[in-house]
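Page 42, continued from yesterday. The earlier attempt failed because a stray header line got pasted into the input along with the sequence. Redoing it now with the clean sequence only.
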Amino acid sequence: MNKLGQTTGVAIIIAIFIFIIGFSVLNIVKPEVTTARSINGLNCVNATNISDGTKLTCLAVDLTIPLLIWGIISLVTGVIIARAIEG
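This time it went through. Structure tokens are written below.
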């Protein structure tokens, strides 16, 4: 059988597995980010009464989910490309 086809097929299966696990973890992280931004946490809702440092922390917490999505997609793409080049 074609070795490149086998390698690419395995890479796609691994990539799908990583993608599913990654987005499952994302569902665990999302409520925690919402809790951190709430009135009981950083109070990001009330931008007029918080300090500049807290505003910066709110921005960092807001970037968590997009960075996780970007990281998952990068990892999946990297696995597929690395296996395709290797085989």
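Notes: The mean pLDDT is 87.
Reminder to self: strip header lines before submitting.
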